[in-house]
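re: ur question from yesterday

yeah so i grabbed the chain u mentioned. its 462 aa long if i counted rite. heres the sequnce exactly as i have it in my notes:
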Amino acid sequence: MPHTRRAFLKKAAATSVLAGGLAPALAGRAEILSMPVHPRLSPNDTVRIATIGMGIIGFIDTDTALRVPGVELVAAADLYEGRRIHVKEKYGDHVDTYVDYREILARTDIDAVLICTPDHWHVPMAKDALRAGKAVYCEKPMVHRVEEGHDLIKVQQETGKVFQVGSQYASSILYARAHELYREGAIGTLNMIEAITNRNSALGAWQYSIPTDASEQTVDWDRFLGSAPKRPFDATRFFRWRNYWDYGTATAGDLYVHLFTGIHRTLDAIGPTDVVAQGGLRFWKDGRDVPDVLLSLFTYPETEQHPGFNMSLQTNFVDGQGGGFHFKFIGDEGVMTVGGSSVTVERNGRWEPSIDEIITGYNSAFTFSLAEQKRLADHLRKNYVAPIAPAMTGRMEYQAPDGYDDRFDHFTYFFDSIRNGRPVYEDATFGFRAAAPTLLANMSYVDKRPYTWDPSAMKIAG
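ran it thru and got these structure tokens back, copy pasting raw so excuse formatting
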């Protein structure tokens, strides 16, 4: 396997790995840039986009997309009148706004759509858009239910249109660097991954503001419900939809999916085989039906790309420390932590005890008879090989450039794929493999049972 101590030490000796410069991390980009080009638009052509769903991420994604040269916003759709008004306030009266997203798909002058809606609309809108000949940037998680995954993959393959899931870790130079360090053997043999993403605020717990003019006159409630169960108008459900299973995928769908994207990008992994989760609604008892605490365990089998390992993921929306994030790849020779704007590796290595430590230290030898202790010590002095210090110890860090934005890179790849036909990092298959384990964690929590997953066939196995 390529992730060996020898490879890592050789690389460390030949380059400035310990200093953590920018150049090594660009290797991840080279993977995409070296792929075959099948031109679809002239590199000089403007890509005309429309955004469907102008909530928080809708505006953030649109702003980021417009930072990419040669991109123009021509339309947007949202079910709340106030957001349609704000689209024109922010981007100009020339941007057309719609209630029904299908009016956007009917336009022949739009090349791509950004789908930034509640989760239960992702698959229906993505399928409609692909069949309408549009490239699609679909926010994560790609699916609301596991059974939707294969259908969307099939539509992407049938249409041949560009489709990218919006989990920006897939394009991040941090995870490209983590991938490189892992392959070089920086942590030895991986055995565990541990990730925590916690919050402790009302906004962090999705208690987003509800406008004072929210009503059935300003919100198209029936269109919002779509395939969800019918119920009377409820402004809280509309503006805080993440809090309800009918429309969202809870903390796992919002946060775990990013972690799975980073894991699969770093390890070239395709998914776990076993999933179990527990949690509860511990504090935010505001009418929501999703948990605010979720703890999950996943088992990844050995493959050609990585050894077998276990993984624990946690989200807690009532973390008294104020929240926080850490993401650790744990090996037998080191630990790699990805977070914020850096990748760090700390190596302590396994140590072998000295003869004195064996005889007098925290070891069973001191409980033996004095005669046996002496015999053991004499034997060790004749036969014991002096302990060798770990091959490398200490700490190294790769720091992303100031102001680095992985979401911008993710959109850059998306639009490059539209223009030049290069594959995206996170197509429908990758997106489903990142989303499915998160949904299985939710199912395990709700059903109070473990689930078995076939990551190759992408199906529930038991």
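noticed a couple things. The domain at 5-19+173-350+390-403+428-460 is CATH 3.30.360.10 (Dihydrodipicolinate Reductase; domain 2). also Residues 13-30, 32-39 have pLDDT under 50 and may be disordered.
anyway ttyl
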